[in-house]
Automatic annotation (TrEMBL):
<feature type="transmembrane region" description="Helical">
    <location>
        <begin position="20"/>
        <end position="40"/>
    </location>
</feature>
<feature type="domain" description="SbsA Ig-like">
    <location>
        <begin position="46"/>
        <end position="151"/>
    </location>
</feature>
<keyword id="KW-0732">Signal</keyword>
<dbReference type="InterPro" id="IPR032812">
    <property type="entry name" value="SbsA_Ig"/>
</dbReference>
<dbReference type="InterPro" id="IPR029062">
    <property type="entry name" value="Class_I_gatase-like"/>
</dbReference>
<keyword id="KW-0812">Transmembrane</keyword>
<protein>
    <recommendedName>
        <fullName>SbsA Ig-like domain-containing protein</fullName>
    </recommendedName>
</protein>
<keyword id="KW-0472">Membrane</keyword>
<keyword id="KW-1133">Transmembrane helix</keyword>
<dbReference type="Pfam" id="PF13205">
    <property type="entry name" value="Big_5"/>
</dbReference>
Length: 740
C-alpha cells in the first residue's frame, strides 16, 4: 500500500512517501530546533467504510440494499462482479448485477432473483487474490471486507397445539398474522396460528375460541365450524360473507364502504368500558343487516353520521357464541399506526425531507380524535370480546402491559447535536435523583437514552461508565436532513454506528434508534433498513409539525404501545415501532402536553402508554418531563429497557390450561428477568367470583380492579404452575404494599 507520512513542525511541513527511514530524522530535527512534532499518516489506497447489511445481522428483509461504501473514488470498471461477490454462506455464488455510483462512491449489488427466506449470505469485497477493486489513483483496495447476514424466514407455525385460542390465517387477508401481534400486545399469550386447511375436527376439539381472520373457501369448513359453535365453541370472524352469514345472524346490506367510523355500544359487556365516541376505521367495511343477535359496536359513515349497520355483533348459537367484525381490525390497527400506504414517497406537508408524518398529513388521521389512542381502543375491543365470550368455558389469563402493574412510562430519549454537556448533565441528574439501592433493569432507577452525534463531547470512558449504570448512549445517525435513497440510509447507519459509535464512544450492539430529522423512506423501508443494522426499536414516528397538529396533545399513530411494524404484504417485521409522542418543538405547551398524556394514562380514561419523548438539551423540556413524571410515580426508562421488556413479555406464554367449572389451572412460561411481571384474571366466571390464586405452593395476593369495563384480579407472576379458584366466597388476604 502507499502511505504519505506528514511530519508537522510548528515551523514547517515535511512530506515523505512510503519511506519510514526518514521519519526519525524529521522528528529529531523538529525537536532540536525547539518545535513540537506532529505525525500524520495519509493512506491513499481506498478502504471500505461501510457495508449493508451489517455483519452478523439476522432476520434481514430480502429487499434491504446490499451495498458497500468506499473511502475514495474508484477507478471505472474496477467495481464489478469479480471484486464484489455475493454468495450463500457455504460459498456458492449468487448471480447478481453490480453497479457503481461514482457520485457517492457506492457499489450496489442486485441479486438476479429474490434472496431466499431464512438463508445465510455473505458479501465479499476484494476477498480473492487479484480481485481487489482499485481507486482512481490506481491503488488497490487496502484490505478485503466481508459482511455476513441471514434473511428473515417464513412466518413460524403456531407454537402450542393445545392453545385455547386459534388464529386462523389464509391468503384472503394479508394482515391476518398481525392478529397474533395484537393478542400479544393485549397480553393474551395463549394462542396459536394455523392455516385454514389445518382447522381439523381434532384441532377444534381442544380449542375454546377461534379467530377467523378471513372467510376461507375450504370445503366443509363453514359447516364444521357451525357444528362446533353449536356444541359450545366461540367463533370470532372478520368480515364474514356469503354462506357464513347466517351463523352470525347477518345478511348483506349493500356494497362495502372504504373507511368510516364505529362507536362502541355502552350497553354491551365487551365495549361499555371503551371510549364512548366514534373512532376511525381504515380499510373496507362490510354493510350488514343484523337479523339476530346484539350489536357490540355501531357503524358510522362519518364521525357524526350514523349508519343502520353494526360494526361488531355477538350472537348466541346453541351452546356457543358467534361474533362478527364488519371490518378488518388488524388492517385498521396497522394503518392507524403506520399511515396511509397510498401516500408513500409523497412530500405532503411541504416541509422536506419526507417524514413519517407525511403518511398521515393532512387527514388520514382525524385530528379531532388525536387525543384518543384509537388503535389501542380497537385492540381493547377485540380483547374484551374474547374475554367475555370465553368467560363461561374458560377464564383467560392475560399479562399486564408494563412491569409492576404500571400504567404509564416515559422513554426518555434525547437527541444531542453536540451540545457542550447535554448528555452528561442529563445522565448525572437522573443518576443523582435515583434511590441509592435501586435496580436499573427493574425500572426502579431513573434512566434515559441519549442519541449522540459525531461532534458530541462525550468521552468514551464516560459513555461506557454510564452504559454500565443502565443508561443508553447511542448514535443519532445523520443522513444530511434530506431525502436519501435506501442504500445511502443503510450505509450511513453502518458507518456511523460502527466507525463512530463503536470506535469513538464504545457503543456496541446498538438496538434502538431515532434518525436525525426523522427522514423516512417508503412505508416500512426505513424500519427494514434499521433492522438490517441490528436496530429493533424505532422512534421515528414523531408527533410533528406544530402547524398541522394545532397544539393538540395526542397519539399520531393511535397508540401508546410499542408494537412490531408490518410490511405491505402483511409480514410482521422484527422491529418495534415506538412513537415519539412528547416533543419539545411541536408547538404544544410543554406542561400541558405532558400532563394531558400522563393523566389520561393514569386516570379513568385508561389510555395506558409508554410515551416516547424528544428533547435536545436546548430548553427546559427535559426538566419538565422529569418533574411531572416523578410527581406521578411514572417510570423514566431508556429505549433499550423498553425493548428488553417487550421481548420478555412477548415471549411469555400461558400453557396447559384446564377448567372444571370452578378451578382454573395453568402454567406460565416466562423468561427470567429483573422486571416484575403482572398477570390478570377475570374476576368472574358466570356467577362465580374469583376467591383465591396460588402459584407453586403459595397463595398469591391479588388486587381487584376494573380495566376497560371488565373486572380483573391483578397479581405478581413468575414462571411455573398456578391455580385460581372461582366460587362465591371472597378473600381477605392483605395486599402487598405496592398494590395498596
Amino acid at each position: 500500500m502507499t502511505i504519505v507520512e506528514i511530519w508537522l513542525c510548528t515551523g514547517g511541513v515535511s512530506m515523505l512517501s512510503g519511506k519510514y527511514a526518514y521519519s526519525a530524522l524529521i522528528a529529531i530535527s523538529c525537536l532540536l530546533t525547539g518545535f513540537s512534532a506532529y505525525h500524520l499518516k495519509l493512506y491513499l489506497s481506498p478502504t471500505v467504510v461501510a457495508l449493508s447489511p451489517a455483519d452478523g445481522t439476522e432476520e434481514i428483509d430480502p429487499s434491504v440494499p446490499i451495498a458497500v461504501a468506499f473511502s475514495r473514488a474508484m477507478a471505472p470498471g474496477s467495481v464489478n462482479g469479480t471484486t464484489l461477490v455475493l454468495e450463500e454462506r457455504e460459498g456458492r455464488p449468487v448471480p447478481a448485477r453490480v453497479a457503481y455510483d461514482a457520485e457517492h462512491r457506492i457499489g450496489l449489488v442486485t441479486p438476479a432473483a429474490p434472496l431466499r427466506p431464512g438463508t445465510a449470505y455473505a458479501l465479499r469485497v476484494g476477498a480473492e487474490a487479484g480481485a481487489r477493486p482499485a481507486g482512481a489513483l490506481g491503488l488497490a483496495l487496502r484490505a478485503p471486507a466481508t459482511t455476513r447476514f441471514t434473511t428473515a424466514g417464513a412466518a413460524p407455525p403456531g407454537e402450542d397445539s393445545g392453545a385455547p385460542v386459534l388464529v386462523v390465517v389464509g391468503p384472503q387477508n394479508p394482515f391476518g398474522r398481525y392478529y397474533a401481534e395484537i393478542l400479544r400486545a393485549e397480553g393474551l399469550n395463549l394462542f396459536t396460528v394455523v392455516e385454514a386447511a389445518a382447522l381439523t375436527p381434532e384441532r377444534l376439539a381442544s380449542a375454546r375460541l377461534v379467530l377467523l381472520t378471513a372467510a376461507p373457501a375450504e370445503p366443509g369448513l363453514a359447516d364444521r365450524l357451525a357444528a362446533w359453535v353449536q356444541a359450545g365453541g366461540n367463533l370470532v370472524a372478520v368480515r364474514p360473507a356469503g354462506a357464513w352469514l347466517p351463523l352470525f345472524g347477518l345478511a348483506e346490506a349493500g356494497a362495502p364502504l372504504e373507511g368510516g367510523y364505529l362507536r362502541p355500544d355502552a350497553q354491551a359487556a365487551a365495549s361499555r368500558g371503551l371510549v364512548q365516541d366514534t373512532i376511525q376505521v381504515h380499510g373496507p367495511i362490510s354493510r350488514f343487516a343484523l337479523e339476530d343477535g346484539d350489536a357490540v359496536a355501531h357503524l358510522f359513515e362519518t364521525a357524526e353520521r350514523p349508519l343502520p349497520h353494526p360494526a361488531v355483533t355477538l350472537r348466541k348459537v346453541g351452546q356457543g357464541q358467534a361474533a362478527a367484525l364488519a371490518y378488518d381490525l388488524a388492517t385498521t390497527v396497522v394503518r392507524s399506526r403506520q399511515g396511509n400506504p397510498a401516500w408513500v414517497g409523497q412530500e405532503r406537508d411541504g416541509r422536506p425531507p419526507r417524514r413519517a408524518n407525511d403518511l398521515f398529513y393532512p387527514d388520514h388521521l382525524d385530528l379531532a380524535k388525536v387525543g384518543v389512542p384509537q388503535a389501542d381502543e380497537h385492540q381493547r375491543l377485540l380483547a374484551n370480546l374474547i374475554v367475555v365470550m370465553s368467560e363461561a368455558r374458560l377464564p383467560l389469563p392475560r399479562l399486564w402491559y408494563l412491569p409492576d402493574g404500571r400504567r404509564a412510562a416515559l422513554i426518555m430519549a434525547g437527541d444531542d447535536h453536540a451540545t457542550p454537556r447535554g448528555t452528561l448533565d442529563a445522565f448525572a441528574r437522573l443518576a443523582a435523583g435515583s434511590p441509592s439501592d435501586c435496580r436499573p433493569d427493574a425500572w426502579e432507577c431513573d434512566r434515559a437514552t441519549s442519541y449522540v452525534t459525531s461532534g458530541t463531547p462525550l468521552p468514551r470512558a464516560e459513555a461506557e461508565r454510564y452504559a454500565e449504570m443502565g443508561f443508553e448512549p447511542a448514535m443519532h445517525v445523520d443522513t444530511g436532513c434530506k431525502d436519501s435513497d435506501p442504500a445511502m440510509v443503510s450505509l450511513a447507519l453502518s458507518e456511523q454506528t460502527d466507525r463512530i459509535g463503536r470506535a469513538r464512544f464504545g457503543i456496541a450492539g446498538q438496538a434502538t434508534h431515532r434518525l436525525h430529522c426523522i427522514a423516512w423512506n417508503g412505508w416500512a423501508e426505513t424500519a427494514k433498513i434499521q433492522r438490517a443494522h441490528g436496530i429493533r426499536l424505532n422512534l421515528d414516528y414523531y408527533y410533528w409539525s406544530g402547524e398541522w397538529i394545532g397544539q393538540r396533545p395526542g397519539f399520531m399513530t393511535g397508540s401508546g404501545l410499542p408494537m412490531r411494524f408490518a410490511d405491505l404484504d402483511g409480514r410482521v417485521l422484527d422491529i418495534y415501532q415506538a412513537a415519539t409522542h412528547l416533543v419539545n418543538e411541536n408547538g404544544i405547551d410543554h406542561r400541558h402536553g405532558i400532563t394531558a398524556m400522563l393523566d389520561k394514562a393514569l386516570g379513568p380514561e385508561q389510555f395506558f402508554g409508554v410515551f416516547g419523548t424528544h428533547y435536545d438539551y436546548t430548553d427546559g423540556y427535559f426538566d419538565t418531563l422529569v418533574s411531572l413524571a416523578k410527581a406521578r410515580n411514572v417510570a423514566l426508562i431508556s429505549a433499550a429497557q423498553m425493548l428488553r421488556w417487550l421481548d420478555r413479555r412477548d415471549e411469555a406464554r400461558f400453557e396447559h390450561l384446564s377448567w372444571d367449572g370452578h378451578t382454573l389451572a395453568f402454567r406460565v412460561r416466562l423468561a427470567e428477568g429483573p422486571e416484575q411481571a403482572v398477570a390478570m384474571l377475570p374476576l368472574w366466571s358466570t356467577s362465580h367470583r374469583l376467591s383465591g390464586i396460588s402459584c407453586g405452593e403459595h397463595r398469591v395476593p391479588h388486587e381487584v380492579t376494573t380495566i376497560k369495563g371488565l373486572d380483573y384480579a391483578l397479581f405478581d407472576v413468575e414462571a411455573g404452575s398456578c391455580r385460581a379458584v372461582y366460587d362465591e366466597r371472597t378473600s381477605s388476604m392483605p395486599l402487598p404494599a405496592r398494590l395498596q
